[in-house]
């Protein structure tokens, strides 16, 4: 499953629950509730799960995808997904994969020169991950 923007939201929301899919790739969207509150970002309503912030943030939901493969791409200049909030979430996801003994099943790429877009460098990572897990 490879999706962009709102589709990326569907990726990390679906990953923990849909066992029929072999791997998950999300591009440019994992807005943390912490960032939404701190920067007063009005994001897509699909990103809001009432009451969940008391239990964790979006990365904590994405981490539940472990041990199945998950790759996430981000643009460092994406104002709707501030990278300073994304990076700690990526560390939490990585910790979940480490805890399952499959740290190699989690990867991410941050394109330092773009915002909310699917850049050619991101697309290279998408293809690499899909080839790795779907063509084996």
Question: What would you say this structure looks like, in words?
Answer:
This protein is an alpha/beta fold and 136 residues long. The protein has one domain (2-134): Rossmann fold (3-Layer(aba) Sandwich). 40% of the residues lie in helices and 14% in strands. It has 5 helices and 4 strands; from the N terminus they run βαβααβαβα. α4 (83-99) links the parallel β3 and β4. The longest helix has 17 residues, at 83-99. The protein starts with a strand and ends with a helix.
Domains (count) = 1
Strand order of the largest sheet: 1-2-3-4
Given helix and strand content, the structural type is alpha/beta
So what's the overall shape?
globular
DSSP strand count: 4
CATH domain class name: Alpha Beta
Considering the protein shown, what is the CATH homologous superfamily? Alpha/Beta hydrolase fold, catalytic domain
Offer a quick outline of the entry.
The chain is α/β, with parallel strands linked by helices and 136 residues long. The chain is 40% helix and 14% strand.
């Amino acid at each position: 499953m490879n999706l962009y923007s709102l589709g990326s939201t569907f990726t990390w929301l679906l990953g923990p629950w849909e066992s029929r899919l072999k791997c998950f790739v999300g591009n440019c969207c994992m807005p943390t509730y912490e960032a939404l509150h701190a920067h007063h970002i009005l994001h897509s309503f699909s990103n809001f799960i009432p009451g969940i912030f008391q239990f964790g943030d979006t990365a904590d939901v994405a981490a539940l995808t472990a041990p199945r493969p998950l790759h996430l791409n981000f643009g460092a200049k994406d104002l709707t997904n501030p990278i300073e909030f994304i990076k700690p979430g990526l560390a939490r996801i990585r910790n979940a994969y480490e805890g399952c003994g499959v740290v190699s099943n989690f990867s991410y790429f941050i394109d330092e020169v773009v915002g909310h877009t699917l850049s050619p460098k991101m697309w290279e990572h998408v293809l690499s991950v899909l080839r790795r897990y779907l063509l084996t």
